[in-house]
Specification:
Blueprint: E1 19-24, E2 27-32, H1 37-43, E3 69-70, E4 89-91, H2 95-109, H3 126-133, E5 160-162, H4 172-181, E6 186-189, E7 196-199, H5 215-219, E8 225-227, H6 228-233, E9 238-243, E10 252-258, E11 261-267, H7 280-284, E12 299-300, E13 309-310, H8 313-331, E14 336-340, H9 346-360, E15 365-367, H10 370-383, E16 401-405, H11 409-412, H12 414-425, E17 429-433, E18 442-443, E19 446-447, E20 450-452, H13 459-472, H14 478-484, H15 487-498, H16 504-511, H17 515-527, E21 531-535, H18 537-540, H19 545-558, E22 569-571, H20 578-583, E23 590-591, E24 595-596, H21 600-610, H22 622-631, E25 636-640, H23 644-647, H24 651-659, E26 663-668, E27 680-683, E28 692-695, E29 700-704, H25 716-726, H26 736-746, H27 755-761, E30 763-765, E31 809-813, E32 839-842, H28 844-849, E33 857-861, E34 866-873, E35 881-884, E36 913-919, H29 925-939
Parallel strand pairs: 1-4, 14-15, 14-25, 16-17, 16-21, 17-20, 21-22, 25-26, 26-27, 31-35, 32-34
Antiparallel strand pairs: 1-2, 3-4, 5-8, 6-7, 9-10, 10-11, 12-13, 12-27, 18-19, 23-24, 28-29, 29-30, 31-36, 32-35, 33-34, 33-36
Helix pairs in contact: 8-25, 9-25, 9-26, 10-19, 13-16, 13-17, 13-19, 16-17, 22-24
Length: 949
């Protein structure tokens, strides 16, 4: 095994179609117009010395090391900033150039520590390499003059060190922060000899606007910016290419290793989703995989009040199977079910739903994806014919207007947000539809053309009003609609949406959005050559989530914005494999590829392949399982990688349901909140141990490769197969690759997918079949998957959750950059340095009205329950709306969320809860119960969470 080394061509690739032929060192070279001489030379295998240049950044021309001679031109221009020209003759190696380069290097080295043998970058330092490349053997100037060798290190960031004594002021870190990340947290401060890299206002990396994405560390050519893990462990010796297990962007990484220890995670330049960029979670927060809290032995217990007992795998699997079979014997075949995980691989999810259907003998399978994005699947399938987003991430580079609805990409999908911000800096216009003033509304070099701060729960009214403007002002793309859409459905929709009650003026009192602003935003979207919609959980987690998805599809079809690059309807999936867990048949009514269980032809295909009869009736969704458990008819549950006792709404109800069951099996990394109600615990594997695939928000299927052996001794799919066999239905696979082969054989959209294909091409986006052997980056080109696009009537129906005198405020929830979902992973890393508690954002007026000061502890109560947390006064929320995150279990944000849900999919309405906020110095009942439970956890052998150890 060796390190994966990626060539650095010095400057970005030209996208020009015109070709230019020139001569470099006597050899003819043909490259696209606009290519730099440096990159053209690299295409011929000629490496010109460089320090400030890297192909992740635009050329800069500051280091003066990449000088070349061009026949007929005076001087020695920088090859990184000089584009090729037809007939040009270039020399990269002459005595004159060698002398100049050596002189430049002498100046750098004269103000640089000569500690190469003890330096953490020894063997991985471009300055060291370039000194060798130019043949530097001495420094004529000596080392006695003024220097920066005593400059103090900045150790404030938990993940990397900044050592200004080793800085050559090449500006690569500053440019990476600007061009790649788009945060603009770094600058070159002062001038001349005093020039230095400054984080924020010279305040240290941790205190500055730095988001710890790692772009500066990756760009640094010396040991100035270095991962602390490299300083502690030394240089890695080999690497494995894999995929991040955090959000739905699906970034590709090189896990750089020493033995079976990860030294660092380096974003892969050829990663289709991230192209060499990363965020703080994917880049640095991998330590949870080896955290001491991980449970590595299977455990069982008779009652949830008993202490856990570690047992062998054979005993644990036999015990679980015996209890499940006993429950079915006493309560019936439908008395047990399972929940699949959006954090597990496609292969792991597939075998769980197969076990439930074939071994359990029912369709009581649901997934955590339903509680976030099931309205996406329903709404897009109804209108367009397929349950997924329409574009690849690269498509945003061709958007002229971008509308972000109910999403906060800079926090929840930061690598995609960086792509988006780059396009916005280039001139694309932005519309933000969100109650909260997210960072994209106004940040460095980015400002939304319109921010529509709607009242939570009024999404459909806003979207209908935008459509009303487009129809009544003649902005419909009639040619597109006539060619691509069902005429009868469009005529019905046009009549519906033209009604006066849908006008911006009519809905202003409902939505709180000024009519003039809404009209202007609609005109901007409709008039753009290319307009794209990107949305998140602020769209789907509503009682009208499915209606809203269809309303967005109506808008896109009416304006002709589906079926090419730069347009489309794009869900930003929350977890790493939300798309994949849905694709794999995790819903009670659908088999893989979103085909209904009642379809005789489809079901017969599975029955033949699996050699078992399948129940044609859809099974129970998670809320139905809970209701049946409380009623006494549902008694057994297999939970794969999902902490439902923290993440689902109305947690007291969830706890009551789990307590009513006789056998709860949890398969996870840690003894989480759900494990408090479990009778069997199967230890799971981290992404660093998995072999399989994830499918990201753009339908991209990425390989997940193991970088270390399973710490608990067995892959998760093998555990499930053994449990299935113990239940009487044998499942046997020799590898995860064989599971994917079965998926491909049964799923038309995956028909061409195999590990061999993914290893060869890197990644593919489904559909991948004989019509698209290397995948489909953009959907619905020429025609919709369903044939003709279908306009749907989207009547606005107000949520039943209403404010009143007792509960006058609306609570909405979201994520923060440094944390992930229920925090089980990120809270076990140094990411707690940025967010160690959930807080409540409250508008200054609402705070003053209640006598609340910034930092006060407050009670947050709803009709369902109450919690206590710290208040932060902020005008990011409109008056009457408060906001919190849900990353810490002690906060218990979902204690107070209601059981209202989407009418079509039962996706919970997390985003609208009527609440009251009052000052408090007491913990809530939930927090008292949580503390009691934590004490009990310790008594029965559940380890407490200790962050970042």
């Amino acid at each position: 095994m060796t390190l994966i080394k990626e060539l650095d061509y010095g400057t970005p690739k030209s996208t020009a179609t015109e070709l230019v032929t020139l001569e470099i060192d006597g050899q003819e070279v043909t490259v696209p117009a606009g290519t730099s001489i440096m990159r053209a030379a690299m295409d011929r295998g000629v490496q010109i010395p460089k320090l400030c240049a890297t192909d992740m950044l635009e050329s800069f021309g500051s280091c003066r090391l990449c000088l070349v001679e061009i026949e007929g031109r005076k001087g020695t221009p920088a090859s990184c900033t000089t584009p090729v020209a037809p007939g040009m003759k270039v020399k990269t190696q002459t005595e004159r150039l060698a002398r100049l380069r050596k002189g430049v290097m002498e100046l750098y080295i004269s103000d640089h520590p000569l500690d190469c043998l003890t330096c953490s970058a020894n063997g991985d330092c471009e300055l060291q390499d370039m000194a060798g490349a130019v043949g530097l053997r001495e420094v004529r100037y000596g080392y006695d003059g003024d220097n920066h060798l005593d400059a103090a290190k900045d150790e404030s960031n938990p993940y990397f060190t900044f050592d200004p004594a080793k800085c050559i002021v090449c500006s690569r870190c500053v440019r990476a922060c600007e061009e790649v990340q788009g945060t603009f947290a770094l600058t070159i401060d002062d001038r001349g000899f005093a020039s230095h890299v400054s984080a924020g206002m010279d305040e240290g990396f941790l205190s500055s606007e730095c988001v710890s994405c790692g772009a500066c560390v990756q760009a640094c050519p010396t040991a100035t910016l270095t991962e602390k893990s490299v300083i502690e462990m030394g240089q890695p010796e080999h690497s494995v290419l894999t995929t991040c297990a955090y959000c739905g962007v699906g970034c590709s990484f090189k896990a750089e290793m020493k033995g079976e220890e990860v030294v660092r995670m380096v974003p892969y330049k050829d990663g289709g989703a991230n192209e060499g960029h990363s965020c703080v979670k994917g880049r640095f927060a991998f330590g949870y995989a080896t955290h001491k809290d991980r449970q590595l032995k299977p455990m069982i217990r008779e009652r949830i009040t008993d202490p856990w007992r570690e047992v062998s795998w054979d005993e644990a699997i036999t015990y679980a199977a015996t209890r499940l079979k006993d429950i079915q014997a006493r309560y019936g075949r439908g008395s047990i079910g399972g929940i699949t995980s959006s954090r597990c691989t496609n292969e792991e999810v597939y075998v769980v739903q197969k076990m439930i259907r074939a071994a359990f003998g029912n369709n009581n399978v649901d997934t955590c994806a339903r509680v976030c994005h099931s309205p996406t699947g329903y709404g897009l399938k109804q209108t367009l014919g397929t349950s997924a987003g329409t574009q690849d991430f690269k498509s945003v580079a061709k958007a002229d207007v971008i509308m972000v609805i109910g999403a906060n990409p800079t926090d929840a999908h930061p690598v995609f947000a960086s792509r988006m911000k780059r396009r916005l800096r280039e001139g694309a216009k932005l519309i933000v539809v969100d109650p909260r003033r997210i960072e994209l509304v106004k940040s460095p070099h980015v400002k939304a053309a319109y921010h529509l701060p709607l009242r939570p729960g009024t999404n459909v009214a806003v979207m209908n009003a935008m459509a009303h403007v487009i129809v009544t002002e003649g902005l419909v793309d009639r040619a597109y609609v006539e060619e691509r859409c069902e005429p009868k459905d469009f005529a019905l929709w046009e009549k519906f949406i033209s009604a006066p009650e849908h006008s911006p003026e009519a809905v202003e009192a409902i939505t709180g959005v000024p009519a003039a602003e809404l009209r202007a935003a609609a005109r901007l979207y409709a008039s753009a050559p290319n307009a794209a919609i990107y949305y998140g959980l602020g769209v789907t987690e509503h009682s009208q989530g499915s209606t809203m998805v269809m309303a967005m599809a109506n808008l896109a079809m009416a304006t002709g914005n589906i079926g090419r690059e730069g347009v489309g309807i794009n869900p930003l999936r929350g977890q790493n494999n939300v798309q994949g867990s849905c694709d794999m048949g995790s819903f009670p009514h659908e088999l893989t590829g979103y085909r209904h269980i009642s379809d005789t032809t489809v079901r017969s295909q599975f029955e033949s392949f699996w050699n078992v009869p399948l129940d044609p009736e859809p099974g129970l969704r998670i809320p139905n399982m809970f209701a049946a458990a409380i009623d006494g008819s549902f008694k057994g549950l297999f939970v794969q990688g999902e902490d439902i006792a923290q993440s689902d709404p109305n947690l007291k109800h969830v706890g009551e349901a789990l307590e009513s069951m006789e056998c709860v099996i949890v398969q996870d990394l840690f003894l989480n909140e759900t494990a408090a109600f479990a009778h069997v615990f199967f230890p799971g594997t981290s992404f660093l141990e998995k072999d399989g695939t994830f499918t990201n928000a753009e339908r991209r299927i990425n390989r997940v490769r193991p970088v270390m052996k399973e710490k608990q001794g067995m892959s998760e799919w093998e555990i499930v197969c053994r449990l299935s066999a113990a239940l009487g239905y044998p499942m046997h696979y020799n590898s995860a690759a064989e599971i994917m082969d079965e998926i491909a054989a049964l799923t038309p959209s995956f028909a061409g997918v195999s590990f061999d294909l993914l290893d060869r091409v890197g990644s593919v986006q489904w559909p991948c079949n004989e019509n698209a052997p290397e995948g489909t980056p953009v959907m619905h080109i020429g025609k919709f998957v369903r044939g003709k696009g279908r306009f749907m009537i989207t009547e606005f129906v107000a949520t039943p959750e209403r404010t009143n005198r007792s509960f006058p405020l609306i609570l909405t929830t979201g994520r923060i950059l440094s944390q992930y979902n229920v925090g089980a992973q990120t809270r076990r890393t140094e990411n707690v340095a940025w967010h160690n508690e959930d807080v409540l954002e409250i508008h200054p007026f609402d705070a003053e009205d209640r006598g609340i000061n910034d930092g006060d502890m407050v009670s947050l109560t709803s009709r369902i329950g109450g919690i206590t947390l710290r208040a932060v006064i902020s005008d990011r929320m409109p008056q009457g709306v408060v906001y919190t995150t849900f990353h810490h279990p002690m906060t218990g944000a979902n204690v107070i969320t209601t059981e209202y849900s989407d009418w079509a999919t039962s996706c919970p309405e997390y985003k609208v809860t009527a609440v009251q906020v009052t000052r408090s110095n007491q913990p809530s009942d939930w927090q008292r119960e949580w503390e009691v439970r934590e004490t009990e956890h310790k008594r029965v052998g559940i380890k407490p969470l200790v962050a970042a150890e």
